[in-house]
Design a protein that fits this description.
The structure holds two protein chains of two kinds. By secondary structure, chain A is mostly helical. Chain A is built from eleven helices and no strands. The two termini of chain A are 28 Å apart. The radius of gyration of chain B is 24 Å and the shape is globular. The chains are: A mainly alpha, B mainly alpha. At the A-B interface, helix 4, helix 5, helix 9 and helix 11 of A face helix 1, helix 6, helix 7, helix 8 and helix 12 of B.
């Protein structure tokens, strides 16, 4: 991931969208890490319940008298961690399957790609619900695992395509002629060439996963209370929409701003690395 | 061309087979027991449990179940729902599909009229203020959780201003003898908020597709030729460029087929819209195996069909592809 990142940094930074995205993301990450230290712990209850945003509590308090800003920033930690780790897992799996299918070819490729086609035809939220709803309450690690193992299908197609494109190039043949083994060819030559598209896909996937996790938590199947997550906070806020709309407003804004800046960076990256989109137009 | 088509159809069928196997395996690998959901806390005698297992075939080996299920599909029988007291799954799907088609259809209509028009305006004014604002707006929508936007809209328009109904498809208090027009208006009013919500979070896809397609065409020689002939910009765009930019966008249509069937699970949930998406969520929550398979199969079939139709549309609409064959 390092080389294309270094290569793309300057052009991404130069675009208005890319720079805005990077700055906002950095700010959000920083606030998520730092702010909880200066705020009351997210489980501490005070007498003022459903208090409007004001001097004492910048985002107000929730129905149990907990500081909403503490919960939103903690939720940021949770949501960003879940998104980051599960995307890393998904990209690794996708790269491995794509490299295998593309390099080996033949019936392995045919079988793997049919399975990927089949998996891609099922809406992801559906699969997630199927796995997660069974147990009702899932630990965070399982949630990350499930989000990761359901997010690699498109990536594997992408990497496979790159491998097929590069596999017949001279430098690969040269490496093989010089006696490089399968592993060396795959990881030294084929993988680095797929890094650009992989990086773009990873960035855009972060936005998708944040939204998905929020949706799952909103349905009550994602991050489990009392741990706060942005989707879970919106779920908690539902009964109080009339008298305390800020309870829903702030976590929602957090999601919108984060996903928007991730996508801005992703778009800028895509243009900088000049890779084609990864089915970015599949409706949710 | 026909050989290609046959190959493509076979591929689509294989994909569907893979889908069936994946869903089936997933369903059985994950914990949870449909009969447990059905009986709840009631104490059952072994005979009763056995009777239920017999009834829903849950005690047979997985492979036997899979084969039985496949045979059922070929006969147009998806089994009986466990949660809904054994009612045929096909019947349940048929009941819910019209609601989803109504919501999905209106979203599609909006995205493929307004969305295309806006995308076109963006391409014509590339890099100007309008383009930048529309880009920001559509990307913001794309970054928005549909359930959040839905609840906010419901709160503003429904609870606060009392302009629009916030849930369901009809007003249950609508008098029996209401005129057709009144019923129609009632249905339309219920449709507004879910449609706006789902459309706003998805319209970016059509807009950006149309924008980039038209931008590509505007660089081509024949457009320059049209401009040098002194045609007005409006004429160049509408009569020459736009038509050619329509093809890639129309083929996008196939990818949207699934939302016709499910709307969005989340939007249907927020607006209590009695569609397939809601049915699917219920089925999954209750471990209703046959109903899960049924809804999943319906959606996957539409996804695969959408892809197939997209390819065929390309073949029919773009003569260049036919000539290559």
């Amino acid at each position: 991931m390092i080389d294309p990142l270094r290569e793309a940094w300057a052009p991404v930074w130069r675009t208005r969208g890319g720079r805005t995205g990077i700055l906002i993301l950095a700010a959000i990450t920083l606030v998520s890490i730092v702010a909880p230290w200066f705020l009351p712990a997210y489980w501490v209850q005070e007498f003022a319940t459903n208090a409007a945003p004001g001097a004492g509590h910048l985002m107000g308090t929730d129905n149990l008298g907990r500081d909403l800003m503490a919960r939103v920033t903690w939720g940021g930690r949770v949501s960003l961690t879940v998104a980051g780790l599960s995307v890393a897992l998904a990209m690794t799996l996708g790269a491995l399957v794509g490299l295998t299918a593309g390099y080996l070819g033949g019936w392995v490729d045919a079988l793997l790609m049919r399975l990927v086609d089949g998996a891609m035809a099922i809406p992801r939220l559906f699969v997630l619900l199927l796995v997660v709803a069974a147990t009702g309450k899932v630990p965070l690690a399982v949630l990350i695992l499930v989000l990761g193992t359901t997010g690699w299908f498109g990536v594997s197609r992408l990497v496979r395509g790159e491998v097929l494109r590069v596999r017949e190039e001279e430098f690969v043949h040269a490496a093989e002629a010089l006696g490089a083994g399968r592993g060396r060819v795959i990881f030294r030559h084929l993988l680095p060439n797929s890094m650009g598209p992989l990086l773009v896909a990873a960035t855009l996937a972060v936005g998708d996963v944040i939204l998905l996790e929020a949706g799952l938590s909103f349905l009550g199947y994602g991050v489990q209370p009392p741990a706060p997550s942005w989707g879970g906070l919106i779920l908690d806020a539902r009964p109080f929409l009339t008298n305390a709309p800020w309870l829903s407003l702030f976590p929602g804004l957090a999601i919108v701003i984060t996903v928007l800046s991730v996508n801005l960076v992703g778009e800028a990256l895509r243009e900088a690395l000049d890779t084609r989109s990864l089915a970015a137009d599949t409706p949710r | 061309m026909f050989r290609w088509l046959a190959g493509r159809v076979v591929q689509a069928l294989l994909t569907l087979v893979a889908t069936v196997i994946i869903i089936f395996v997933l369903m059985r690998l994950t914990p949870g027991d449909p009969l447990g959901e059905l009986t709840g806390d009631r104490i059952m005698t072994p005979e009763q449990v056995h009777h239920l297992q017999q009834l829903y075939h849950t005690n047979q080996p997985i492979l036997t179940q899979l084969l039985a299920f496949t045979k059922g599909i070929l006969q147009g029988d998806l089994g009986g729902s466990i949660h809904y007291g054994g009612r045929p799954v096909t019947q349940l799907l048929r009941e819910r599909l019209p609601a989803s088609l109504r919501l999905g259809g209106s979203v599609l209509l909006l995205n493929f009229t307004l969305g295309l028009w806006l995308g076109m305006r963006q391409a014509v004014r590339q890099g100007r203020r309008l383009d930048r604002w529309l880009t920001t707006l559509s990307l913001t929508g794309y970054a928005m959780p549909s359930f959040w936007l839905g609840s906010l809209l419901a709160w503003w328009f429904g609870v606060r201003w009392h302009i629009l109904p916030v849930g369901g498809m009809h007003d249950p208090l609508l008098p029996e003898d209401a005129t057709l027009l009144a019923a129609w208006i009632d249905g339309l009013r219920h449709l507004v908020l879910p449609t706006l919500t789902l459309s706003f979070v998805t319209i970016a896809a059509t807009m950006r597709h149309q924008r980039s397609a038209l931008l590509q065409v505007l660089q081509l020689d024949f457009v320059r030729a049209a401009r040098t002939r002194g045609l007005t910009e409006r004429r160049v765009v509408w009569r020459h460029a736009w038509r050619n930019a329509l093809l890639p966008v129309l083929t996008l249509f196939g990818l949207w087929l699934p939302i016709l069937a499910t709307g969005s699970v989340l939007v249907e949930y927020v607006f209590a819209w009695p569609g397939v998406g809601q049915l699917a969520a219920e089925a999954i929550g209750g471990r209703d195996y046959p109903l899960i398979m049924g809804t999943a199969l319906l959606v996957s079939t539409l996804v695969v069909l959408g892809g197939l139709l997209t390819d065929i549309a390309y073949l029919l609409l773009d003569p260049r592809i036919r000539l290559q064959e």
